[in-house]
Design brief:
Layout: E1 9-12, H1 18-29, E2 33-37, H2 51-62, E3 66-70, H3 77-91, E4 96-99, H4 114-142, E5 145-150, H5 153-156, H6 163-183, E6 188-196, H7 210-219, H8 228-235, E7 246-250, E8 253-256, H9 274-285, H10 295-298
Parallel strand pairs: 1-2, 1-4, 2-3, 4-5, 5-6, 6-7
Antiparallel strand pairs: 7-8
Length: 304
């Protein structure tokens, strides 16, 4: 067992498999006590069993670590509080929240229904807020704490058929920045990771055309355990000066993402009319327009 997170208590949501499981195990190896949270449903929301959370806890304990399971849902305010309460009840404190729980309901925007929209927003965006909010009083009182949220290039850049997921993931980036600003006075940090990895979530990506098959083949090279070191680092005291940032982890590659800032401005002393905007403002700014791109169009090199 390592020591970079020794003495810390961490809650990892969606930790029954994939990225979350690897993060939970990595924290335990780094010396942390772990609340392994997973509601135990399929990617599409079917079923529901405490098996995944308990299985990961058993694995951690067998390796000499310390962990307890939680099967409460992140998508409800009260149940999210139960997740954090599990840490308090068993370990007496909470130091780190890793908001990893997720689901997918992919559908083209003009075909997406209300349920598909709400289910993804509830788990990703509401869930990240609810669990983070539940930990906030403890972080504030002890004047320390760290949040690690999972965002996605589907929101940061764009993707087809994921308006619900993209909106939630970009919302999480904004939520993280707001937390970082609001809680800096209490020495609380908040950062995001955009993970690139083959997991339950990405396994639903279609692979029918030659292009789709080639993309999936590249994704399959990116293993979930590669995300864990950054998640552990961001929760540790070694990252004491790091907050409000968005990182990407792609196999052995770490990326730092830019955040929206003005790139061009135009001024008209007498004010603008719609006609003048069309004649002057837009032509002046058009060279800096962002192309209508998807994540694979922008991050289009092979993982290393």
């Amino acid at each position: 067992m390592g020591s970079i997170a020794a003495g810390k208590v961490v809650v990892v949501t969606g930790a029954g498999g994939g990225i979350g499981r690897d993060i939970a195990i990595a924290y335990a190896r780094a010396g942390a006590k772990v609340v392994v949270n997973d509601i135990g449903v399929s990617l599409s929301g079917q079923g529901g069993t405490d098996g995944p959370a308990h299985a990961v806890v058993d694995e951690i304990i067998a390796a000499g670590g310390t962990a307890v399971p939680s099967t409460a849902s992140v998508a409800g305010y009260e149940s999210a509080n139960q997740i954090v309460q599990t840490a308090i009840d068993h370990f007496g404190r909470i130091d780190i929240v890793v908001n990893n729980a997720g689901n997918l309901r992919d559908r083209l925007f003009h075909k997406m229904n209300e349920e598909e929209w709400r289910q993804v927003i509830d788990v990703h965006l509401h869930g990240s807020f609810f669990v983070s909010r539940a930990a906030a009083p403890y972080f504030r009182e002890q004047e320390s704490g760290a949040y690690v949220h999972m965002t996605s290039t589907s929101g940061l850049i764009g993707n087809f058929g994921q308006s619900n997921y993209s909106a939630a993931k970009l919302g999480i980036a904004a939520l993280s920045k707001s937390i970082a600003l609001d809680m800096a006075r209490y020495n609380v940090r908040s950062n995001c990771i955009a993970p690139f990895a083959w997991s339950r979530m990405t396994s639903s990506i279609p692979a029918e055309t030659p292009e789709e098959k080639a993309r999936v083949e590249k994704l399959q090279k990116m293993e979930t355990h590669k995300i864990a070191p950054m998640a552990v680092y961001l929760g540790s005291d070694a990252a004491a000066e790091v907050t409000g940032q968005i990182f990407g982890v792609r196999a052995n590659e770490i990326l730092l993402f830019s955040q929206p800032r003005p790139v061009r401005s135009v001024h008209m002393s007498d004010g603008w009319t719609p006609e003048l905007i069309a004649q002057i403002a837009i032509p002046a700014m058009q060279g800096q327009f962002h192309k209508l791109e998807r994540s694979p169009d922008v991050i289009n090199w092979d993982p290393i």
